[in-house]
Amino acid sequence: MTPAEAYEALRDETQTVLIGQDELIEQFTVALLTRGHVLLEGVPGVAKTTAGHAFARAVGVQYNRIQMTPDVLPADVTGTHVYREATGEFQLQRGPIFANVLLIDEINRATPKTQSALLEAMQERRVTIEGETLALPTPFMVIATQNPIEMEGTFELPEAQRDRFQFKLVVDTPSRDDERRILDRFDADVTLDAESVEPVLSSGDVAELREVVAAVHVAPPVKEYILDVVRAVREHEHVDVGASPRAALTLLNAGKARAAIHGREYVIPDDVKAIALPTLRHRMVLNTDADLGGVSPEDVVEDVLGSVVPPEGATADSAASD
């Protein structure tokens, strides 16, 4: 199975319950094939949780969900040692983080201490429980959601936590036509939910697809374009702290995955442009002038993409001659 075939299968199967979310599934697929994590932001009721669950079902891997509240402790996420009277010994009780796809609902309702328990897992693919370091399953992907309109009782993710997410995706309310299709679909089958999605991949398929993505060619002009975009964000007049080198690596690797799922063996500037916004919008700190002027991270990315000139001819010909 090629990455393009895998993406098509995932998209078609998740459309069982998801209407008008092709771009979301595309970016989920890119993240999965490049060991990335995704932060979903949207108002209640736009199917953020359903999208994550349906995608995990389609991938055919183990899925767990954690509902974050202020009283959730790090041990509730990672696990702890529990005393068993029958044996008179402490036994490791693994937490829900031991899954291939971990959905964290309302991550900003967890305290900073609990949020920090995810840092090692998201970066190192392992957790430390009472001094014992344990590897997480492969693949391992975090999909976290947050509600942008209800701030009471929440804890904003610090910059270090946000930077662990490959993409920040904003889930908007559907168009009128899509919303009508949703009504018709669920009127026809009131039992329809994410459990209705059937697996189309396996963890073994994911490992093979990741190898294919890693072999996708990136011509030197495209690498220069990536650096130009990242540096333009850092040096933008409305940015105090810009994107880290991890952002440049994300544009490189995610660009490879996007090229692969669209049937190409080489990255073009349009791949970089397509993933620039979800890659960069959460990796910058804006200055006071931006706040006063109503400038958003999205405005900064749009300005940068409009001002940085992409390389010409970075296509199959340049890939072959490189």
Automatic annotation (TrEMBL):
Name recorded for this polypeptide: MoxR family ATPase
SUPFAM superfamilies cross-referenced by the UniProt entry: P-loop containing nucleoside triphosphate hydrolases
Annotated ranges, domain AAA+ ATPase: 34-175
UniProt superkingdom: Archaea
Keywords of the record: ATP-binding, Nucleotide-binding
PANTHER family listed in its UniProt record: MAGNESIUM-CHELATASE SUBUNIT CHLD, MOXR FAMILY PROTEIN
Organism: Halorubellus litoreus
Transmembrane regions listed in the UniProt entry: none
Presence of the UniProt keyword Membrane in the record: no
SMART domains in the cross-refs: AAA
Source lineage: Archaea, Methanobacteriati, Methanobacteriota, Stenosarchaea group, Halobacteria
GO terms assigned for molecular function: ATP binding
